[in-house]
Design brief:
Blueprint (H helix, E strand, L loop, with lengths): L1 E8 L9 H9 L3 E2 L2 E8 L5 H13 L3 E7 L7 E2 L2 E3 L25 E3 L4 H10 L14 H15 L6 E6 L1 E2 H6 L6 E2 L1 H16 L2
Parallel strand pairs: 1-3, 1-4, 4-8, 9-10
Antiparallel strand pairs: 2-3, 5-8, 6-7
Helix pairs in contact: 1-6, 2-4, 3-6
Length: 203
């Protein structure tokens, strides 16, 4: 059976919950669209997250990679179109802040997603879930992880689907974080990611 490596992040930037952590924990071991899910939780750390991602990739040897990140404030599931070769923004969980720093000195300016992002958006909408393609994964850890994976796949000439999907806040995060933001139920977030993975199985 084919294996899909699904990654999420620990909580960050003072938020007590990261719904992607709960998604990957819930889906770990499931079979979806012909893929067995192998979940990996990544640290919010500019140096450790890419290293942990690639270490897991070599251990799992997956047939596809889908990474998840929280986009608090967004109201839809948003597959990312492109990752750019920049690290910038707020400090990571170890207090490291970077400015205009490249991810890979020898890397391209950007890499396009290798996921069927339009198909994912259409399938989610057909099933009643708001979804849109996003043209910016930002410059924080989500973009860093997406870029790292796509750069590695191209460098090693590994022809597998890979990319990044941002999810909105969960209701629990909206309540616990005590901030006004759009939110989804955790069950709906998990159902939406299952549908996204099914799209890969249909390719």
């Amino acid at each position: 059976m084919k294996t899909l490596m699904l990654t999420g992040f620990e909580p960050f930037l003072g938020m007590p919950i990261n719904p992607t952590e709960r998604i990957v924990n819930s889906l770990d071991g499931e079979t979806i669209g012909g893929y067995q899910i192998k979940s990996i939780l990544l640290p919010v750390d500019f140096e450790k997250a890419p290293a942990a991602l690639l270490e897991a990739f070599h251990q799992v040897n997956p047939n596809a990679v889908v990474s998840l990140g929280l986009a608090a404030g967004r109201d839809a599931i948003t597959p990312e179109r492109i990752a750019i070769n920049i690290r910038d923004g707020a400090p990571d969980n170890n207090g490291v802040a970077l400015e205009d720093a490249p991810i890979q000195e020898d890397g391209r300016d950007g890499y396009f997603s290798r996921l069927p992002i339009r198909k994912i958006v259409n399938k989610l909408k057909e099933n009643g879930f708001p979804a849109n393609i996003s043209n910016s994964a930002g410059t924080y850890l989500c973009n860093n992880v997406m870029y790292t994976m796509l750069h590695h796949i191209e460098k090693e000439q590994v022809g597998i689907p890979a990319g990044f999907i941002h999810v909105p806040a969960s209701h629990d995060l909206a309540v616990e974080g005590k901030k006004r933001m759009p939110s989804w139920s955790q069950r709906d977030l998990e159902a939406a990611i299952r549908l996204a993975v099914e799209c890969l199985g249909e390719e």
